[in-house]
Amino acid sequence: MKNYDLIIIGAGPAGLAAGLYAGRARLNTLIIEKQKNGGQIVITDEIENYPGCIEGETGPSLIDRMVKQTEKFGVDHVFDTVTDMDLSGDVKKLTCLHEEYACKAVIIAAGANPVNIGCPGEKELTGKGVSYCATCDAAFFEDFEVYVVGGGDAAVEEAIYLTKFARKVTIIHRRNELRAAKSIQDKAFANPKLDFMWDTVVEEIKGDGIVESMVVKNVKTGELTEVMADEDDGTFGIFVFIGFKPNTEVFRGHVEMDEKGYILTDPEMRTNIPGVFAAGDIRQKSLRQVVTACADGAIAAVEAGKYIEEM
Ligand code: NAP
User: Fold this and answer.
1) Residue 235 alpha carbon to ligand 1 centre in Å
2) Which atom of ligand 1 is nearest to the CA of 48?
3) 260: Cβ below 6 Å to ligand 1?
4) pLDDT in tens, 252-308
5) pTM over 0.90
6) Same fold flag, 2-114+244-310 and 130-240
């Protein structure tokens, strides 16, 4: 079993900011990441609302620098998946797929994931026309038609980004007004390549190995319409941005959560378990942004340091 002062679960902006503060405080720290450093932000093409990022900052470029910064202060990184834990005592134990760890304090910063539409065909055609990441997949739809599902900040921002690639982008939204911030809406309405399908939901996605059509329903009239791929194209893209769900399944029963599965903390990022903190998108909060995730991470690391010192 490997021992650390602090283990941070998740290498998104919250986990990396926590790592930076913990490393600088000389805590022997490990960051465990399941898949890929950066979390949601690595699928973001442009960051203009993180202070200091003015032009040309992408999610991956920002994350690369955050990772290097933690390494500079001696933080260890490992790719592994937490499968079980005992957080109750003074020594916290984490069981991962490849290793077991013990530590004095834990920061849970495992983030949140995209919500699926849940209609027939969506799962089968994911990666074959259905996508949850414009930065990853936009280039596949160069000069094709693309549909974006959702009406929040993510949907509208990603739809604008997709207009750089696709011939035409149509936002499919279940209401007749967008949820996205006014400034983002203004950009969208001014974009000649963006169209809107209001009061509409996707009922089914069809295709033989690739998206060929989808059935949409007007929620006001109940009318069903099958949207077919252009004959010459043979396919179109469906990008889904309808919110997130927290990655808290493995923590269920170990820390207190709200009804949606977000972890409850006090303003110091403390959960109901002494020595266990949560930071970033995974916790119940009003604004999920890189800047708020980083702030959470910094606070959690400082509080974890105090907790360890007082032990
Ligand atoms: P969101 O704000 O929760 O918006 C989700 C959108 O999807 C809403 O328009 C919602 O419709 C729609 N929706 C939800 N479930 C649906 C379903 N089953 N079928 C069809 N439509 C559905 O989520 P988000 O846009 O992913 O943003 C998440 C958080 O990240 C927000 O706090 C957002 O501000 C933040 N964010 C910020 C930026 C930025 O500031 N640059 C960029 C991206 C994300 P209704 O409107 O009808 O509820």
Assistant:
1) 26
2) 41
3) no
4) 999 999 999 999 999 999 999 999 999 999 999 988 889 999 999 999 999 999 999
5) no
6) yes
34, amino acid identity: K
- Give the model confidence (pLDDT) of 202-213 as tens digits: 999 999 999 999
Token readout for 59 is 């999610």
Distance (Å, whole) CA 108 – CA 214: 39
Ligand 1 mutation pick, 174, 186, 216, max ligand atoms within 8 A of CB: 174
- CATH number listed for the domain at residues 2-114+244-310: 3.50.50.60
Ligand 1 atom with the smallest distance to the CA of 150 is: 7
Question: Is 3.10.310.20 the CATH number for 130-240?
Answer: no
Side-chain-side CA neighbours of residue 121 (13 Å): 19
What separation in Å is there between the alpha carbon of 175 and the centre of ligand 1? 12
Residues tagged active-site:
133, 136-137
Ordered by start, the domain boundaries in the chain are: 2-114+244-310, 130-240
Question: pLDDT tens digit string along 40-53?
Answer: 777 666 677 889 88
Taking the centre of ligand 1 as the mean of its atom positions, its distance from the CA of residue 54, in whole angstroms, is 24
pLDDT for residue 24 is more than 90: yes
Per the rule left: phi > 0, alpha: psi between -120 and 50, beta: everything else, 57 is: beta
Q: Which of 40, 153, 291 to mutate to test the pocket of ligand 1 (most atoms within 8 A of CB)?
A: 153
The pair of three-digit structure tokens given for residue 99, joined into one six-digit string: 């290793």
CA distances from 43 to 111, 158, 185 (A): 14, 10, 21
Q: Are 210 and 129 in contact (CB under 8 A)?
A: yes
